[in-house]
Amino acid sequence: MNGKSSGDDDLATAAMRAPWNETAKGWNESGAIIRPWLHQATQAMLEMAGVRRDSHVLDVAAGAGDQTLDIAEKIGPQGHVLATDLSPAMLELAARQTAAAGHHKVETRISDGQELRVEDARFDAVVCRLGLMFFEDPLRGLREMARVLKPGGRACTMVFGAPQANPCVTTLMSTALRYAGLPPRDPYQAGGLLSLGKPGLIDELFSEAGFSEIATIRIAAPFSLPTVKHYVNFVRTSAGPIVEIVQRLDSATAEAAWADMERALSKYQGPSGWEGPNELLLTAARIPGRH
Ligand SMILES: C[S@@+](CC[C@H](N)C(=O)[O-])C[C@H]1O[C@@H](n2cnc3c(N)ncnc32)[C@H](O)[C@@H]1O
Predict the structure, then answer these.
(1) N or C: less crowded end of the chain, CB within 10 Å?
(2) Would the CB of 85 count as within 6 Å of ligand 1?
(3) CA–CA separation, 282 vs 150, rounded Å?
């Protein structure tokens, strides 16, 4: 099945999808920035999920398919990868770029990660890179991953870590909210960028979803760019949740908000470039049973 139909498109789904459809092009065009930023963490994620030659892998919240390329590379021509995402615009790009790279064992399917349109016990491994924290109900997302894994299969998710280890994210969000006249948000609010950064939370959710052998590691993944302007430009085109708030403002106020973010984040500018601190959590676990 090559899921081009979006099925039951209720209002909640449309609202979740909108910011990502709008920034799909930007996320894809920022590949040159995202790829080196997440390279090491992505390789670790595939390792921790047990992705190997010939594996059948589900890529949840696959976006424009950057990590899908790495999966396809690793599993080889006899493996199979199903890339799923809520956003048709993102998946369209994923399909295009994996085909252009010559990976013909990649299938795409529009699917909310909280309600996967996938049969039970089909995959050896499931990965989800920077997606699970956006789910309104991440436990439901993890239960779905557990359901579609074969007995003994493994999952690995990548999410942002604690707020204090991700000061660029907290600065962007607090500035956007202030300019929009909105009250500060609890950083752990469900569906937010840092919602799964609360110490211990993601392990508890994996356990509740039925996984065993759960282990989380923290990885420093600083953003290294020539200048702070490059970083803010990346955010302006690609960071759905921030863009969604700033685009409600009139254009002068929006420009002032972006300029303020740039000013605040310029403190990470050094003699050899701009380096914004960033911490990721990789959580891997296994579904009981023999594989
Ligand atoms: C930050 S992007 C990450 C994309 C890709 N995994 C990567 O790392 O390049 C977040 C992705 O999560 C997807 N997403 C958000 N909520 C989702 C949900 N409930 N189900 C499936 N995908 C979702 C968005 O459409 C978007 O493509």
Answers:
(1) N
(2) yes
(3) 21
Mutating to test ligand 1, I would choose from 40, 58, 70, 130 the residue with most ligand atoms within 8 A of its C-beta, which is: 130
With a cut of 70, say whether residue 2 has pLDDT above it.
no
Packed helices 31-48 and 66-75: angle between N→C axes, nearest 10 degrees: 40
Q: From ligand 1's centre to the CA of 286, what distance in Å?
A: 22
Architecture of the CATH domain 11-162+189-224+278-286: 3-Layer(aba) Sandwich (3.40)
Question: How many whole angstroms from 90 Cα to the centroid of ligand 1?
Answer: 8
State which ligand 1 atom lies nearest to the alpha carbon of 113: 20
Buried (b) or exposed (e) across 43-61, using 16+ Cβ within 10 A? Answer: ebbbebbbbeeebbbbbbb
Determine what percent of the chain falls in helix, strand and coil, rounding each to the nearest 5: 45, 20, 35
Say yes or no: CB of residue 61 within 6 Å of ligand 1: yes
To the question of pTM greater than 0.70 for the whole model, the response is yes
Domains of the chain, residue spans: 11-162+189-224+278-286
